[in-house]
Each structure stands twice: as C-alpha cells, then as structure tokens.
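A favour, since you know our structure tokens better than I do. It will help me judge whether the discrete encoding reads sensibly. The space below this message is yours for that.
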Amino acid sequence: MSKIAKIITAAIVLIGVGYFSFGHHEKASGNETLTVGIMSGDKRTDEQWDIIKKNAKKEGLDLKIKTFTDYTQPNAALTSGDIDANAFQHYIFLNDWNKTHKSDIVPVADTIAVAGRLYSNKHKSLDEIPNGGVVAISNTKITQGRTLLTLQAAGLIKVDSNVKDPTLKDITENPKNLQFKELGTDQLVRVLPEVDLASPDSSFIVGAGRSIKDAIWVRPLDKSQHDGVNIIATTKKKAKSDAIKKFIKAYQQKNVADYIDNKSGTGEVAVWDDPAFKK
C-alpha cells in the first residue's frame, strides 16, 4: 500500500472512531431539554437554580435557564415558543396577562411566597410616618399591587376591594395623605434615605448588603394571600407533558425548600408543602 493510501485509510479510521464515540456520548446523555424563563437575579438566584438543575438531571431532564430583565418578557417568550415554561409571576399577574393578551398560559405548580416588608431609614415604626409622608413605590404593576396590599394590611391605606392587583388609582382611603413616588423597582433601596417609607423586593435588599430584618413592618403570610403566590407556568398544550412534570418534581424537592427557607436570606417561603398555604 502506498504512503498516500495509508494516510487516507488512517484518516477514515479516525473519522469513524470519532463518529461512533460522539454518537455513543449523545446517547448516554440524551436527556430531554426544557428551557425555563426567569427574572435575572444575583448569586442567590444562581445557587437555587443550580440545585434545581441537578435535581432535574436525576429525573432525566436538562434545564436550560434563560434570564429576562423586564416582567413583560417571560410570558411573551413563552407564547412565542422561545421558552417552554417560566417561573417568575404570581397568579394575579398571570390572570391579568391572559385577559389582556388573550393567551392560554396556565399555572402548573406553586413555588414561593414573599412576605410584604416595609422599610424606612428615617423611622423605627409605622406610628412615626408623618402626615404627607413620601412613599417610594415600584412603577411596575406586578410589584406595585403587592406593595399597596402590604400598605393596606399595615393600616396605612385602603384600596378598592374589588381589585386584586391594585394600582395607585385604586386607593380609596389615604388618611395620612401619603405621597407616592413611582420609581423603577431596582431604585427603591437607593432612595430609602430620601423618603419616609418603601417596600423594595427582598432580593434588592439583600443585594444591597442589607438584611430583611431591617424592615419596620412585615405582613404575616397565610392562605388568604394564595393569589400572590409565585408559580411555574407553561402553555396549555405543554402543561401535562412529561418534561413539565419532571421540572415540577425537580423544583418541589426538600433540598430546594431548605435553600429557599433557610439559606437564601430573602425571606421567601417555599409554599408547596407549607400547611399555611394549603387550600
């Protein structure tokens, strides 16, 4: 055999070995992939999803996480087919979204609940909030409604009882004539020295190096707030698929609940096995 023929033969053998090795590798790791949309977070968010992804692998599912920076994006991506499921919203937000956008997104599992917390750099109790006091509030509907309901639970305002996800226009009583300053959700911690009261998301409090224990008032969590529980959501077509079932199982594990309840430091509560949220 000529030298050139030997080289060609060797090349063919190598390609064949590579082909079969690659094919075997694909077969060995041929888990189904599910793409899940979440809101971008911090190190705590990454750690929590690392646990969920490891759980999913044990179920034969590879989770691909896609992060978003705007609350309108994950549902739009789900409807368009860019993702298979998302985990960022509560029931109230989803119901409003479906009504507005005529979509068929459905909730398939409960995840977490977050107690409403009120913070102030100027005052140590709600009694100290002055008449005409300034309240910094999110300009995003998903968090503005939650804050208004927290303020109502604290006895500072009343909102229209027929509205589940209120906005500022739904305030019916404001005995202290509180003044509301609408800002981006990520700015609420920064302006605490300038205002009398605010209710930043716990993740932003922790991200700013503060503790949720700094809150001057905390709304107790109970099943009356079930509409405000965060959920896993997907399209009606995919809701009963094996991949979604595996994802739910991977999320609703004890190691995930332990991280959420005891290690995240955000005050979030894993609700799927919490007696306080059983219907």
